[in-house]
């Protein structure tokens, strides 16, 4: 469809649409799931409609589209496999992770609390309410007269700002889960 006139592009798209059922059956055999097959097919159609110039010139449209579908199915399985492996690794990490003792937890809390006081007052207050006191974001929003979405954004930004402060103060050990608060003194 590269360098085709609008009429030729429309004809090519019609050829793809005419083969919709055949494409869907092909994908269902490949992936074994009708809903997943439909998702992959719709994504492929959207790709061609958005960028008709991606079809190689001089190659048959339908065979090229089958190849596109095959590659899309393979990519979907790879992504699913990667996500599955990541979840398994996270589960293994949680199983082997030990909680710090009360003394270490107290040191961490004191260090983080000192750093939180260096944030903008709105951020420090949001973290105090949601993270320390355990208030739901919605309750915090109501108390401050904010919309729940705005409060959630404030809490997110406060967490990010605190994370930057911890990294500034503790450096590399913060990214590796160090619980030794003998790093540079907090501001």
The CATH class of the largest domain, by name, is: Mainly Alpha
- Global Rg: 27 Å
Poorly predicted ranges: 183-187
What's the helix count? 9
Number of strands: 0
Globally, the shape reads: elongated
Total number of distinct structural domains: 2
What does this structure look like?
By secondary structure, the protein is mostly helical. It folds into two domains: 6-96, Orthogonal Bundle (Rna Polymerase Sigma Factor, Chain: A), CATH 1.10.1740; 102-175, Arc Repressor Mutant, subunit A, CATH 1.10.10. It has helices at 6-18, 20-31, 34-50, 61-96, 102-116, 121-132, 137-144, 148-170, 172-175. The longest helix has 36 residues, at 61-96. It is elongated and about 70 Å long. 14% of the residues are buried.
What's a concise summary of this model?
It is elongated, with a radius of gyration of 27 Å.
What is the topology?
Layout: H1 6-18, H2 20-31, H3 34-50, H4 61-96, H5 102-116, H6 121-132, H7 137-144, H8 148-170, H9 172-175
Helix pairs in contact: 2-3, 2-4, 3-4, 6-8, 7-8
What are its keywords?
9 helices, 2 domains, disordered C terminus, single chain, mainly alpha, Rna Polymerase Sigma Factor, Chain: A, Arc Repressor Mutant, subunit A, 187 residues
